[in-house]
Amino acid sequence: MAAPNPWMVLPFVLLLGAMAFAPLRAPQWWLRHYARVALGLGAVTLGYYLLVSRDLPRVLHTGHDYASFIALIGSLFVVSGGIHISVKGEATPRANVIFLFVGAVIANVLGTTGAAMLLIRPWIRMNRYRVTAHHIVFFIFIVANAGGCLTPIGDPPLFLGYLQGVPFWWIAKNCWPMWATGVGILLAVFYVVDRINFLRAPRAVREQETAHETWRFEGLPNLFFLAVILGAVFVHRPIFLREALMVAAAAGSWFTTSESVHAANDFNFHPVREVAILFAGIFATMMPALDWLNLNAGSLLGPRPSPGIFFWGTGILSSALDNAPTYLGFLNALFGVSGAKGITELLHQHPASLLAISIGAVFFGAATYIGNGPNFMVKAIADQRKIRVPTFLEFVIKFTLPFLLPALLAVWLLFFRG
After folding, report:
1. Band of the pLDDT at 210, cuts 50, 70, 90?
2. Predicted TM-score of the model (pTM)
3. Domain residue spans in the chain?
4. How many Cα neighbours within 13 Å face the side chain of 151?
5. Mean per-residue pLDDT for 227-247?
6. How far is CA 316 from CA 44, 308, 359, 364, 392, in A?
7. d(Cα 259, Cα 251) in Å, to the nearest integer?
């Protein structure tokens, strides 16, 4: 792999800057032109790789990664949109904490994307009388990210590790202390924040919160289509069969789900269309940054990096890039600096560093909207429901730094400082 021109990182920086500042400074302009910005900057990078570097295999590889990503995200969005969960109107802080904890557990079975798409609508309905930004952000922190670090199915970086040879149960056996610490701290912080919000609500709203309603599950056949999608994740040959199965499951769900269920969920394709466009630009423009990382990570880390270096290095870049390719970049760097010839040798010699890469990728994926696939999807659904959610920059300043960062520091101090 040839080193990309350093200037070619600029389109990625510009796209991140536009996503961070344009919705804050010029929201109407961004709403009208975000597709032109994302696809235009992506076209600049693609032109460089095709016409200057003449690296068609790299472009095709990225295109396949994007197709797999959007097939998974889109199919889960469609199938979950065909499931309507009626919830009890008991959105007290205690009930919310229980719901988020259950969501964190489910994330390890359905994946963070599946759990987030299935539970975000009932979560919003549970809190419909006082839903605000912290409900959406902590849902992203816990259900869409940190909760899914117990199985390779839970989060895309861990699944990539499984494909590289990391044993399936090694993740659960070794990650559960970090999972319990990180999720436990986030749930405790959420309870305090939500309790303050609950007590500020008018008495009529608090009484409404505990009104009697019944749990009801509609769209049960979609669980079959959900199982097809999750099973397709493990299909690797022939090429695009996995994506075809996911699209087929989404089509089956769309045509067999009653209109009343879609109407109850206020279902439409705008959120997934927005995610597809923005991530098309992200996948294209981040190629130079990832290529540079793969070529230079070993020299940047030094000859004997500690697990903490891998934790913060993987984590910080996972918050700016998609966490799945960042995981692979640091895994390759760990092979380079350790001299290990395979996963078995790596697990024997450097288990703490591999754990640090795994936890860093999963937990820091919650730090921004683009750190992990479901984050932006959750935001798009909240936007569709007219919920006031933070912009890209507000997310980091108002929530990541004061609430997520202490949990990350605790995990580092307890498990990766040495």
Report:
1. very low
2. 0.84
3. 7-416
4. 11
5. 88
6. 26, 12, 12, 7, 16
7. 14
